[in-house]
Amino acid sequence: MSAGRMSAGERTPRRRMPRSGRGWTIGLSAWFAVAVVFLLAPIVAAFVYSFNVGTLGKQTATFTGWTLDWYPIAWQDDSLRRSVTTSLEVACWVAVLGLVVGGTLGLALVRHPSARVRRLLSGLTYILLIVPETVIGVSLLLFYAQTTIPLSMATLVAGQTPVVISVVALIIRSRALTLDRGLEEASADLGAGRLQTLVFVVLPHLAPAIAAGALMSYAFSFDNLVISTFLTTPEVGTLPVYLYGSLQYGPSPAVYAATTAISVVTIIGLGLALLVMRIGGRRV
Question: Transmembrane residues, as ranges (predicted)?
Answer without folding.
Answer: 21-49, 90-111, 123-145, 151-172, 198-220, 254-277
